[in-house]
Amino acid sequence: MLWKGRRESSNIEDRRGQYARGRVAIGGGGLIMALIAIFLFGQDPMVVLQELQEQNLSVSQSEPYQATPEEQEIFKFVSVVLADTEDTWSQVFQQENRVYIAPTLVVFSDMTPTACGTGQAASGPFYCPNDQKIYLDLSFLNQLQRMGASGDLAVAYVLAHEVGHHVQTLVGITHKVREIQSRSNQREINAVQVKMELQADCLAGVWVNNTHKRIHFLQKGDIEEAMQAAAAVGDDRIMREAGIPPRREAFTHGSSRERMNWFNKGLKNGTLSACETGI
């Protein structure tokens, strides 16, 4: 993936080296069980984040943060990818006679307050519609590699998926999904959550399609990297690796095959209309 020498986004809030102060509603053991609930037992990530919300949470500055050269390179790469999402989605929205309002990316370490609850590094990247911010602890990218996904476009896919959730918020999908879930049982809540996540995968593909048309940034092997990332975070794969038989009713993000298929659909078509998942 060609990225060096291009514009970096200014919509980044760097909270590395800061720490959250307050009383955590769920302790260490409870946190582990909550994260298992996200991936294995079908809990909505936003619900879990709200359960983890701290009382009187605040952010304080500790020692000046000293990033390694490798981490700073990743930070720079992520800022370029975010800039690409801003430029591409602005163009796509303009074609749809809409105005794109870019999200803010919050890069943090360990734990940080959000409008959706307490952001935890262990929960992975997430988008909070309440403040329209994306939260990312860069250490997750090491976990992504351990899950079998590596390469520039694998990382870009993860960020583009979260930006896809922001697109859903701007066009009203997020509100619609929450309305449906508010009057549904757990099985139905999970089912519509899967549709929402698969649509975000498709929107990540739409972003790749339109960005490559705009700046020709793809290189050989890049698409395979993104596909590997989509497969690595499939619910069925995560359950199998945890030693638990996959249960469709517990899925919250979709199977590996579904995630790859919807990313590929957005990649091939490059339009918002291609991402109708039945929500």
What portion of the residues fall into strands of 2 or more residues?
A: 5-15%
Mean pLDDT across all residues, rounded?
87
Structural category is alpha/beta
Task: Count helical runs.
Answer: 10
| Total domain units | 1
Cα end-to-end separation: 33 Å
Topology:
Blueprint: E1 12-14, E2 18-24, H1 28-40, H2 45-51, E3 54-61, H3 69-95, E4 104-108, E5 111-114, E6 117-120, E7 126-128, E8 133-137, H4 140-146, H5 152-171, H6 173-182, H7 186-215, H8 222-232, H9 235-241, H10 256-269
Parallel strand pairs: 1-4, 4-8
Antiparallel strand pairs: 2-3, 5-6, 7-8
How would you explain this protein's 3D organization?
The protein has one domain (12-275). The model is unreliable at 22-43 and 51-56 (pLDDT under 50). Helix 3 crosses helix 7. The radius of gyration is 18 Å and the shape is globular. It has ten helices and eight strands. The chain is an alpha/beta fold. A four-stranded mixed sheet has the order 1-4-8-7, with helices on one face. The chain has helices at residues 28-40, 45-51, 69-95, 140-146, 152-171, 173-182, 186-215, 222-232, 235-241, 256-269, and strands spanning 12-14, 18-24, 54-61, 104-108, 111-114, 117-120, 126-128, 133-137.
